[in-house]
Amino acid sequence: MNIKELNPDASPRAAFGARVRSAREARGWKQDDLAELVGYSGRHISAVETGCKPPTLRFSRSLDAALGLTGTSESFERAWGEIRNGSLLEGFPEYVTHEARATEIRLFEIGIMPGLLQTPAYAAALAEGDVRRGTITPEQAGERVTVLAERQARLVRPRPPTMLVVMDESCIRRPIGGDEVMDEQFQRLVEFAELPNSMLQIAPYVIGERRSFNLPINLLTLADRSMIAYAESQAQGHLDREATFVLSSLSSYHQLQAESLSQAESVAMIEQLRKGTL
After folding, report:
1. Domains of the chain
2. Which of 51, 66, 143, 230 sits a CA distance of 20 to 30 A from 79?
3. How many Å apart are CA 162 and CA 128, to the nearest integer?
């Protein structure tokens, strides 16, 4: 049988595949042996080992369980994260780490619902749209939804962070996934607004040039009261701790809140959209 030579230096994906083969062979397993343990086919194992197929989060976790590496510094889940983070905008992986520990989270979003408030169906519809455009694979779409759910789950804790969310009116006007998906998403927003540690506001179109941000921005307050700002465009992300920029962004955020609808008015607008009366 011809065994394809692997070059782990070719790419992070190639290095991952070479590690899978090395770990498998060290245990004297054939590809079918490992496949049975992780719940995939031998052909799938071969494709990952040779770099023909990218590893997924589920596959990586299954490998860790089979090889006894779950939660270790050598875990395949960690290696998968390094591959995935290589395709993320600069600063975002570090931002997510801080987000999970923040005491206050301020968000402003344009065009789509903020990720932390998206329902699984809404998130899946967005990801499926990217698949149809050919910008990501179906596996990457599934991973994106899974990772988002994990970000949301990390905020469910005994002392959850205070979350202040301002959404441009375009977020609730843009239909994603059809009527059922949007109705469920609107319900999620209403439920969020009812939480004691949350504030939801809509920045309506009528404020025009008084909207203080033209791009989405996230502001985190950490336990030591230091702050981090993260902003991104279609192709770039930027994480900033520099006090002048962060404080300026915070001031602009407060101005935006003052121009936006109150939470009660925002919820009323959402309910009107649900009923088709707006």
Report:
1. 12-85 (1.10.260.40), 92-117+157-275 (3.30.870.10)
2. 230
3. 31
